[in-house]
Amino acid sequence: MRSVTATLSTQQHCFHYHTQTTFLTTTLIPIQSLSFRTPNHNFRLLCFSSNPSPPPPPLVVVGSANADIYVEIDRLPREGETLAARSGQTLAGGKGANQATCSAKLNYPTYFVGQVGDDAYGSLVTDALRSGGVRLDGLTVVPSASTGQAVVMLQSNGQNSIIYIGGANLSWHRFLPRQHLDLVAQAGIVLLQREIPDFVNTQVAQAARNAGVPVVLDAGGMDGPLAPELLNFVDILSPNETELGRLTGMPTESFEEIARAALKCHQLGAKKVLAKLGHKGSALFVEGENPIQQPAILSKTVIDTTGAGDTFTSAFAVALVEGKSYRECLRFAAAAACLCVQVKGASPSMPDRISVMDLLNCQ
Question: Which CDD domains match (predicted)?
Answer without folding.
Answer: ribokinase (cd01174)
